[in-house]
Design brief:
The structure is a homodimer. Chain A is of the alpha/beta class. Chain A has 14 helices and twelve strands. Chain A has three domains: 46 residues, no CATH class; 129 residues, Response regulator (Rossmann fold), CATH 3.40.50; 161 residues, Response regulator (Rossmann fold, 3-Layer(aba) Sandwich), CATH 3.40.50. In chain A, strand 6, helix 9 and strand 7 form a beta-alpha-beta unit. Chain A is elongated and about 90 Å long. The first copy, chain A, binds a DNA duplex through helix 2 and helix 4.
Chain lengths: 363, 363
DNA sequence: CTGAAAGCGCTTACAG
DNA sequence: CTGAAAGCGCTTACAG
C-alpha cells in the first residue's frame, strides 16, 4: 500500500540524486541521457516507495493531458457505441483517455462542449458531428487542438477524416436489388446537410442511372433526421406512390426501422410486399423479422483509425491531412427478396424479362 | 479571437490589482471577499482580454480535476449507453466530465483501468462492474477517491449505490405469467456472482413460492454471462424438460434474445408455444417479433442518480452512505400470452383449475 | 552524465 | 478588502 504522497523528491533523496536526474531516469524519452546504474538506483527507489508520478503536475508543466475529446450526436444511437469503443481502445493502448460529449445535434450544445474540451486542454478532438457546411468547424481558432472527423465529413477537406464510402455502399444495395429484379426502387434519404445523407442520396442517383433504372421523384423522400419517426414518415410518402415501389433503400438502419413499422401500417408485408435495405448494420438488426439486409461498416475499425489519425497529428502536427475512406460490405438477410418481375405473373423461366437484357451491368 | 495565452497576471495588471485579488474576484466562492467595484474591473479586464482560466493549473494546485471515472463492462451492451448518458448529463451540468473505461468483465483490465483513473486523479468513481464479492473493491485503498456503485452492488454495503429492485421486478413478471395461467415457468438465470443475476434468481424463487407455484429444478438453468449465446444454451436446457415449460423468465434481455433463437430452433413459436419475458427493456426489444415483454428500468435516471450521489460524496466526504433502490415496471408486449391451462383442452370457464384456489396470493 | 534553478498558472493562508 | 509570497510536483534548458 503506497503512502499517501510520494513525490519525485522523495525518490530522488532515497536514490541519492537530484530530482531532475530522477525525472530523467524515470522518463522513457530521457532515460538514455542518464547513467545506467543511476537509472537502476532511481527505479528501485521509486518501486520501493510505491512512487506514482503526479499526472496533474506533469500535465500542468507540459500542457499536455493525454486526453482526447470525442464529440458525438448521441450515445444512445446504436451506431456510436462501437465507434466510441474503437476510439477508446486504441487511445487507451497509447495511454490516452477519451472525454465524451453528446451534442443532441444541437449547435449550442456543440459549441459549449467544444469550449469545455478546449478549456480542459484536450490534446486533440474526434468529431462525429460535422455537417457538410459547418460554421463551427470553419470558425475554429488557429490554436485549437488537432481535429479528426469521423463518419461524417465537411464539404471541403480541411480536416483529416475517417469515413465510409457511402456511394459504394449504396451501389452494392442498388445492384443487389437490381439483380433481384426490382425496378421501382424508392429511397428514404437522410438529412442532406450531412455528408452521409447527401453521399448516399448521390450514390443512389448514380447507381440507379448506371443500373439503367429510372428514378421516380415520387419515390424519393428526404428525412430531416436519422430517426425511426422520420423513417416512418418518409416511408408513408414513397409507399403512397402508384405504381408502388417494390423495394425501399433507407439511408440508414434507424430510418429502416421506421420503414418496417410503416410497411406494416400500410397493410403490406416485408419482404413479400416490399423489400427493404438499411445502412450501418446496427446491433440487433439481424434479429428483426425479417432480418434486415443492410450495409455493414467496420464500426470499431472506423473508431480505431480515427484514434490513430489523431495520435499521429499530435505527434507530428505538421504532417499532411489524411482522409481515409473505408469500404462497406453488403449483408444480405431476409428483408430483400425477388422483385415482382421475377416472381409475379410472368414466371422467370417461361419468359425472359426484357429488362434483363437491358441491364447494362449484365451486358 | 483570444490571444494565444492570457494569464491571470495579464488580467490583474490590466485591472490594476494583484493576481491574488484577480483570482478571488473571478472565483465564485471567493468573490464575496472582494470589493464589488474591484470585481467589476477585474471581470471587465478578463472579458476584454478573452481570459480563460487554465484548468490544468487550477487542477494542479487544488488537486481536483472535476472529472469522474465511469467503469462499465462494455459500452456495446445496449444496457449501458443510456446509463452512461444519464451520468454524463448530470455531471456536465455540474461542470464535471466522465472518463469511460470498459473492462470486458476482465479482472486484469478492471484493475488497470482503476489504476489509470486514480493516476489521473478523478474526483470520484462510478462502477457498474461490481461483483457480489468483489476482491478489488474490498481492497481499495483508504485514500482512494469516493466510489458509487451502479446497477450491480456488492454483498455488504460498504459503498453508496443506485440499483433496481430486482426481486420486485421478477415478482411483477411471475405474477403476470401466473395471471395468464402459466404454471410451468422456467428461469434462465443470470450469473450468480453478480447481484443482478443472484437477486433475480432469488426473486424468482420467492415469487414462485408466494404464487403457489412449484419450481422444477429442471426448469432453472444458470448462464455464465448475460449474453445471447448463453441465453440460447440455457433455453435449450429448460426446453428439453418434460412436461415442457409454457413460459420462460429470462434474467435479462440479452438472455431473452438467445431464448428467441432457441425457441425457434426447437421448432416452437413464441408466444404460442412458449411465452417469454426479459429484463431491462433494452432499446429496440419492442421491435422484435413478437415484441418482448420485459421489465423496464429507468436507465437514464439510474445514471443521473449515481452522478448525484458521487457529487454529494465529493462535496461532503463524510456524509453517510446511501443505497438507492429504484422501482422497476412491467412492460407487457406480444411475447407473453395465456398459458395452456386457460386456452388448452380445459376451458377456463368449464372447470376451475384446483390450483387457483390453492394460490395463496389470491386467497 | 548530473546538479541547480527557473518556472508552468494558479490558489490560499498570512499579514496588514 | 487587498497585497506579497509561498508552493502545488513536475520538466527542462543551462551550466559544468
Amino acid at each position: 500500500m503506497p503512502a499517501a504522497k510520494v513525490t519525485l523528491r522523495d525518490v530522488a533523496v532515497l536514490a541519492g540524486v537530484h530530482s531532475g536526474t530522477a525525472s530523467r531516469a524515470l522518463n522513457e524519452s530521457t532515460r538514455s541521457l542518464v547513467n545506467a546504474d543511476t537509472v537502476r538506483r532511481v527505479t528501485e527507489a521509486a518501486n520501493s516507495l510505491g512512487y506514482r508520478p503526479n499526472h496533474l503536475a506533469r500535465s500542468f508543466k507540459t500542457q499536455r493531458t493525454f486526453s482526447i475529446g470525442v464529440i458525438i450526436p448521441d450515445l444512445n444511437n446504436p451506431l456510436f457505441p462501437p465507434i466510441v469503443r474503437g476510439i477508446e481502445d486504441r487511445l487507451a493502448s497509447a495511454g490516452y483517455v477519451a472525454l465524451l460529449g453528446n451534442t443532441e445535434n444541437d449547435a449550442g450544445r456543440e459549441r459549449r462542449i467544444f469550449a469545455e474540451m478546449e478549456a480542459r486542454h484536450v490534446d486533440g478532438l474526434v468529431l462525429a458531428t460535422a455537417r457538410r457546411e459547418d460554421p463551427m468547424l470553419l470558425g475554429v481558432a488557429r490554436n485549437a487542438p488537432p481535429i479528426v472527423l469521423v463518419n461524417r465529413i465537411v464539404e471541403d477537406h480541411a480536416f483529416s477524416s475517417v469515413s465510409v464510402d457511402d456511394g459504394a455502399g449504396i451501389r452494392l444495395v442498388v445492384e443487389h436489388l437490381r439483380a433481384l429484379g426490382h425496378r421501382r426502387i424508392a429511397h428514404v434519404a437522410g438529412p442532406q446537410e450531412l455528408s452521409t445523407g447527401f453521399g448516399r442520396y448521390r450514390g443512389f442517383q448514380a447507381s440507379m442511372r448506371s443500373a439503367g433504372l429510372e428514378i421516380d421523384p415520387k419515390l424519393v423522400s428526404f428525412s430531416s433526421s436519422f430517426s425511426i419517426a422520420e423513417g416512418a414518415r418518409c416511408a408513408a410518402e414513397v409507399l403512397a406512390a402508384r405504381p408502388r415501389p417494390s423495394a425501399i433503400v433507407a439511408a440508414n438502419d434507424m430510418l429502416a426501422l421506421g420503414c418496417y413499422a410503416e410497411i406494416e401500417e400500410c397493410g403490406l408485408r416485408c419482404p413479400d410486399g416490399v423489400s427493404l435495405v438499411g445502412f450501418n448494420d446496427m446491433p440487433f438488426v439481424d434479429r428483426l423479422t425479417p432480418p434486415l439486409t443492410t450495409v455493414r461498416i467496420p464500426h470499431a475499425e472506423i473508431g480505431a483509425q480515427a484514434a490513430e489519425l489523431i495520435l499521429e497529428r499530435i505527434d507530428q502536427p505538421d504532417s499532411p491531412l489524411k482522409s481515409l475512406l473505408l469500404a462497406p460490405e453488403l449483408v444480405v438477410r431476409g428483408s430483400t427478396v425477388q422483385g415482382p418481375k421475377l416472381n409475379g405473373k410472368m414466371s422467370a423461366s417461361s419468359r425472359r424479362s426484357p429488362s434483363r437484357s437491358e441491364d447494362p451491368s449484365r451486358s
